[in-house]
Amino acid sequence: MPAKPKVKDVDWMEHLPEAAAEYLKGHRLDEVECVVSDLPGIARGKAVPASKFARQSQFFLPNSIYFQTITGGWGEAAGEGGFTEPDMVLKPDMSTACAAPWTGDWTLQVIHDAFDQAGEPIAFAPRNVLKRVVDLYRKEGWEPVVAPEMEFFLVARNINPAEEIAPMMGRSGRPAAARQAYSMSAVDEFGPVIDDIYDFAEDMGFEIDGITQEGGAGQLEINLRHGDPVKLADEIFYFKRLIREAALRHDCFATFMAKPIEGEPGSAMHIHHSVVDTKTGANIFTGARGAETDAFYHFIAGLQNHMPSVIALIAPYVNSYRRYVKDHAAPINLEWGRDNRTTGIRVPVSDAASRRVENRLAGMDCNPYLGIAASLACGYLGLKQRKRPTKEFKGDAYQGEGEIPRDLFSALELLRNAKEIHKVLHPDFTRVYDIVKTAEYDEFLQVISPWEREHLLTNV
């Protein structure tokens, strides 16, 4: 039997990212996980021995993984000529290679890009959707920059779906308490989990900008440094798995549901945006004397005018719409304001060079590639169409009218009719996404909820 390959024996290992190389230093690589994101954001792929990965430049998976629902069902995928489930060609992006430090051996993860057999990118692969939008910016001489915020809950283990989700037991032996936003003592309650999150992130080469306690019971927020949209989406894709693994080590679950606990705030993926001029390196939202530019207002108008059409991407499940409730730290409309967290579109306090626009509508349950792509697509259309936003909203935006679809069915209808969005994201993507989400919604309608049994069983 041939010996396992040593790090120095395999050429591609000489070009690993610094963090991955440091993780393997002095060790032999055992396995490589070759992964892609499906539409819900679940990692799909293959785990292969390191020796096999070193010999192959690509591998194959059926394109049907992009027609799979969150429950493991399938959308009606038949197209012209019927559905034959052809293989895709998956090619590694070695810049994404990083450790899988929770495994029992020395393992790397590598994100792959999906192509058809003619070499064209698969239009409905989420990473390709985001790359397409970023390329549209670059063709205009713009470089989009994003900074995402990730909110999630640490909850008690829940193995019976009929039971309500409960906060995890803290270090003190008491369940995590709500209404403790920014409390350092509350963060300390989850110290062992957070320590593992930091350790895993360091092994994987990710920089955490900060961890805070949010308003919900057991709810935390992680902020990431601003940067390239695809790179940040890769990190969130990896982070979701990292955080889940850290939680499991301490007998609890991490959940990214938009609204996991009744009466508690939901979990968002706020996205901060700025756009840089490729030639000058200057923020196009700021003029020569530090003033707000037309582009700044056009970007906001793009979010206002087109966000309803992509709500189905940033609020992708029936549970997502439970988050858009008045006075529960989530927006109910598309008003914009400066330093105003009640609006859907917020302009944070910053110096002129760092001027940015925050989209507060996206839920943490969205696929990070698709959530960022959808938000950038709206901003891109705004920059191209050069419209002005509504007047800045001052005061409590919860007193305004709701402008967000209240359910997934309505959101899908808006997406279905949004031809300008189809062109930006790709018509094949929006077609497949509609197929999968419609199948999920139809499946949800087959389930009778406790509310229906309690209030309708004997009363109607």
Automatic annotation (TrEMBL):
Keywords: Ligase, Magnesium. Residues 126-460 form the GS catalytic domain. InterPro entries: Gln_synt_N_sf, Gln_synth/guanido_kin_cat_dom, Gln_synth_cat_dom, Gln_synth_gly_rich_site. The keyword Nucleotidyltransferase does not apply. GO terms for molecular function: glutamine synthetase activity. GO terms for biological process: glutamine biosynthetic process; polyamine catabolic process. Pfam families: Gln-synt_C. Belongs to the glutamine synthetase family. This is Glutamine synthetase. The lineage of its organism: Bacteria, Pseudomonadati, Pseudomonadota, Alphaproteobacteria, Rhodobacterales.
